[in-house]
Fold this sequence. Notes:
The structure holds two protein chains of two kinds. Chain A has a single domain (3-91), classed as Helix Hairpins (Orthogonal Bundle). Chain A has three helices and no strands. Chain A has helices spanning 3-24, 28-49, 60-91. In chain A, α1 runs antiparallel to α2 (28-49) and α2 (28-49) runs antiparallel to α3. The longest helix of chain A has 32 residues, at 60-91. Chain A is elongated. The N and C termini of chain A lie far apart (49 Å). By secondary structure, chain B is mainly α. Classes of the chains: A mainly alpha, B mainly alpha. Chains A and B meet through α1 and α3 of A and α1, α3, α4, α6 and α9 of B.
Amino acid sequence: MSTAFLYALVGVGLFCIGLYALIVHAHLLRKILAINVMGSGVFLVLVALANRTENLSPDPVPHAMVITGIVVAISATALALTLMLKVAMETGRAELPDEGRE
Amino acid sequence: MGRNRWLLLPLFVSLFVGLSYAVLSLPEHPESLQKMVVDKIEVSGVSNPVTAVLLNFRGYDTLLEMVVLLLALLGVWSLGSSAVRREATPDPVLDTLARLLVPVLILVAAYLLWVGAHAPGGAFQAGSVLGATGVLLLLAGWRLRADLTALPLRLVLVAGPGAFVAMAVVTLLIQGQLLEYPPAQAGILILILETGATLSIGATLTALFLGTRPQHKENE
């Protein structure tokens, strides 16, 4: 097993931690952060697995995908934060209503 | 709630194990696209493989990605203004820091844009640095002049996607393929596209940070 797989496993771990936080936390800011952690895990898996080549230089195609992915993740986060602000202004709390819990 | 969390834990451990198995079962030395990129790098116009993939081999993806950025900004703008907006006067340290850093950051962005042709760098990195510059300016209390918020701002925002679409149409008409550059001019064409994309990415990220559409005073 090479170091590429070690980093990929760290990425898988980040993804799982993010998914866990996404489910257990009700606050929308925590959910947005959790999705970002999940995304970072996916990026790490992609970048790590790009380095499985025999010679020195890694595969550039996943790297290009990650570069575009990061910018898309930033803009999606900005949109999500604006939506969260709207919810907080309307209801006074940055949480979605959950009838089942009460 | 507490009980449910303990039920979730084994679920996530098994998810981690399953995903790890999927990752580890991938071949150690796969047939990657790297060989194709290395073979064709001569005709791409740049010598940095990541830039070659982004702007030449997969230029179509980058075109759509610029549109995604624009759509996100349109989404934020269409949500209207948020009431919570404090206009605090910045403290002198931040103000001085912004004055010192902004020229340096712009220079760094230009360098990253230029160096992207043959080393790590390129439109996205340069655009992110420009976006950070804009955020720093906004934090230091700077606002875009009112007469620039309408048309000039929009022109900058669509510079990247607009350049991409124009280039796609031109190459489609001349070369017969979407975003297929003639190898002799590929380098300069990629630089033009990247310059537009850098400006757009920087402006879009700054506008996303501001959160609301910059208002221009009408009928005054």
